[in-house]
Write a structure and sequence with these properties.
- The protein is α+β, with helices and mostly antiparallel strands.
- The chain folds into 2 domains: 466 residues, no CATH class; 132 residues, Rossmann fold (3-Layer(aba) Sandwich).
- The protein contains 27 helices and 10 strands.
- The strands form 3 sheets. It has a 5-stranded mixed β-sheet with strand order 7-6-8-10-9, covered by helices on one side. A 3-stranded antiparallel β-sheet has the order 1-2-5.
- A hairpin with a 2-residue loop joins strand 1 and strand 2.
- Helix 2 crosses helix 6, helix 8 runs antiparallel to helix 19 and helix 10 runs antiparallel to helix 11.
- It is globular and about 90 Å long.
- The relative contact order is 0.10.
- The mean pLDDT is 88.
């Protein structure tokens, strides 16, 4: 019967995984690098530009081709897409003798320090998800990012391999809604076209590529804008190791140096949210493309850039909002300063239209912001670890007695503490001089500052009707892209003094910032080397293998998630068993505001009620063919046992087959 490992997952030392790494590199060259190189050829880019901008371009366009060909029901055209770009890329090399080799005009090589920061930072980031969905200590193992989210990503990728447009992995017959799935589409298309394993492509392979491309993209911007090496180094440092200052706040409050409170975001955890990682890498590349749109006379680069920017609406809508508001701000800046703005206006219109094409089909009912005042900052202050709840009690007293000035004073103080603790040394971005600000063109300053301003307000003072407090993702935008200004501020500050004092300032900034990253790596190492993480029980795996190998491909499986909790918050069974599930991962489905009322009632009636007529009628009406339940289960022992036959059983799980010929007599007899 085999096991799950043969299909889905290998150990990190398995030679097959190494061979897949090599194969994945070839797929990256064909699917991402070649299209990027072709479209940037007019600008004669160097290696950094080809990697840092060309590969993210290729990622965005790879998602677009999957999206378009999927809706047109011609998914075979993906091979034609690859063939056309490879042919166009090869043509000049075949006919090189007819034309001189162009000299690179956007060139530049990374210095050793910058390259070292990129490699170390990428390894830190990859380590956070390296042990996600691997074979470890004889079982399937998950550590240490959000397990439920990772299964959700994998399940959607599997669904996208099978169907387009995608259906809900945990609710058969229901279209996927209220979720941006393009990062999963990138993985699904790689798996579908090249035959790569979904799990390793999702986490280890694409994780490393994204982590490296993040830094290379920043270096590519440095070459495009002629930034000094030290500016690039500081920016890289903040992108990879930027951190909060909550642990310093705890130390100052006499709580000791503690990492018990999680940060809003830190550079080491970028890959813990893979959709955001894709969007960040693509937007860094898009910043360079926007500059080319504004400064070059190329007639088509604006359209390619619009496709890249519009892809953000499918990758991570919070990053997309940052980019689109920034694009409006940049255009207004050009108009206000009487600079040529036609190219950016054309880019903005095209981006808006294309973004709606991406967003509306699956997200038309998502979002919906509503104002919450200073709730986020008040909620931070009352965290138990801080021990500052008395401040909030004092604010409430003043508010209830209509002393609004004093109440507002407390809110402003909470706002200040939250901002300082959350953004840490990123606040060095507020320290700028005319010299440092000249490093970024004015219209791109408007782009970045406009995007960060809108994101800060939306994240700090609003919640959303779908996803609730997920608006914190807007604040994450400020944290991440604030690295550009933090780098400029640190460079300016450290260069203002004689060398000994400058060295001391550099040491202090690094020492204050780096502890969170070290702590994250230590926690992950302790979990992997100890008893942390999540192991999928071997006997549960046997039941999933039975469903995968012995149950018809078109069967619908209902899972008793109350007793099999690993399937409660993510459609784990749907992915591992490679089967359509009636209702799986209900926690995430409700989080995305899906209408689960009828299926909740059905699941309760099937697994918890003792009336065989109701159970039989629901099983028949909903087309359910098999039940996956915990062992022991009371269902076969009741009257329902007359139409449920155990076909697999061990000490942990049982698979019950619905005898459909026996359903009608039960229904009619009652």
């Amino acid at each position: 019967m085999g096991d799950l490992y043969n299909t889905y997952v290998f150990s990190l030392t398995d030679p097959r995984l190494f061979l897949y790494w090599i194969y994945f590199l070839g797929a990256v060259i064909l699917a991402f690098a070649v299209p990027g190189a072709v479209l940037l050829r007019r600008f004669k880019p160097g290696l950094l530009m080809l990697w840092g901008v060309g590969i993210p371009m290729g990622i965005a366009l790879w998602a677009w081709q999957g999206y378009i060909f999927g809706y047109l029901n011609i998914r075979w055209a993906s091979y034609l897409y690859l063939l056309v770009f490879v042919a166009v890329w090869v043509w000049p090399f075949v006919h090189r003798h007819r034309r001189p080799k162009p000299k690179s005009v956007i060139s530049g090589k990374p210095d050793a320090v910058s390259a070292g920061i990129v490699v170390l930072g990428a390894l830190f980031q990859l380590f956070m998800i390296l042990f996600t969905a691997v074979r470890y200590r004889g079982t399937m193992y998950f550590c240490c990012a959000m397990v439920e989210d990772n299964w959700w990503f994998a399940a959607i990728a599997r669904e996208l391999v099978r169907h387009f447009p995608p259906m809900q992995p945990g609710m058969y017959g229901v279209p996927l809604a209220n979720y941006h799935y393009w990062s999963n589409l990138v993985v699904a298309e790689l798996s579908r076209v090249f035959g790569l394993p979904i799990l390793h492509t999702q986490f280890q392979f694409m994780g490393l590529l994204l982590a490296l491309t993040l830094g290379v993209g920043v270096m590519a911007l440095g070459n495009l804008f002629f930034w000094p090496r030290n500016v690039i180094r500081w920016m890289l440092f903040f992108f990879y190791f930027g951190s909060d200052a909550i642990y310093w706040l705890l130390l100052g409050l006499g709580k000791g140096m503690s990492f018990s409170m999680n940060s809003l975001e830190n550079g080491t955890l970028l890959l813990a949210n893979l959709p955001r990682a894709y969007a960040v890498v693509v937007l860094i590349a898009a910043i360079g493309l926007i500059h080319l749109v504004h400064t070059s006379k190329d007639r088509w680069i604006w359209l390619v850039t619009a496709l890249v920017l519009a892809s953000l609406a499918g990758l991570k809508i919070y990053v997309a909002v940052f980019a689109y508001t920034g694009l409006v701000a940049a255009t207004l800046y050009l108009l206000a300063t009487r600079q040529p703005s036609g190219q950016l206006m054309r880019l903005g219109i095209a981006t808006g239209i294309l973004a709606l094409v991406v967003y509306i089909p699956t997200n038309s009912t998502a979002g919906g912001l509503f104002y919450t005042g200073f709730w986020r900052f008040e909620n931070f202050i009352v965290q138990e670890q801080l021990g500052l709840s008395r401040w909030e009690l004092a604010r409430v007293v003043f508010a209830e007695h209509r002393n609004l000035i004093r109440a507002l004073g407390y809110d402003l103080w909470f706002f200040t503490v939250y901002t300082a603790a959350t953004f840490g040394t990123k606040l060095l971005g507020l320290f700028q001089t005319r010299r440092s600000l000249r490093m970024i063109p004015g219209y791109l300053q408007a782009f970045l500052i406009g995007g960060m301003a809108v994101s800060f307000v939306a994240g700090g003072f609003f919640q959303q009707r779908v996803g609730s407090s997920n608006t914190f993702n807007f604040l994450v935008n400020v944290f991440i892209f604030g690295s550009l200004y933090a780098g400029l501020g640190a460079w300016q500050l450290s260069g203002m003094f004689p060398r000994p004092l400058s060295f001391a300032i550099v040491t202090l900034i690094v020492a204050v910032t780096i502890p969170r990253s070290i702590s994250e790596v230590q926690k992950t190492y302790a979990a992997v080397s100890g008893t942390g993480g999540f192991h999928l029980n071997r006997q549960v795996e046997e039941g999933l293998v039975y469903l995968r190998d012995r149950v018809p491909a078109d069967a619908i499986v209902a899972v008793d998630t109350d007793d099999l909790s690993f399937d409660h918050n993510s459609p784990t069974v749907s992915f591992l068993a490679d089967k359509t599930t009636y209702y799986s991962g209900m926690g995430l489905l409700k989080h995305f505001n899906m209408d689960t009322f009828d299926r909740d009632k059905t699941m309760y009636a099937v697994f918890r009620r003792s009336d065989p007529r109701i159970t039989a009628a629901l099983l028949r009406g909903q087309g359910i063919n098999y039940l996956l339940v915990a062992t022991p289960s009371a269902i076969p022992a009741t009257e329902s046992g007359r139409f449920l036959t155990p076909v697999f059983q061990n000490e942990k799980v049982s698979v019950l087959k619905v005898m459909r010929d026996s359903l009608r007599p039960i229904i009619e007899a009652h």
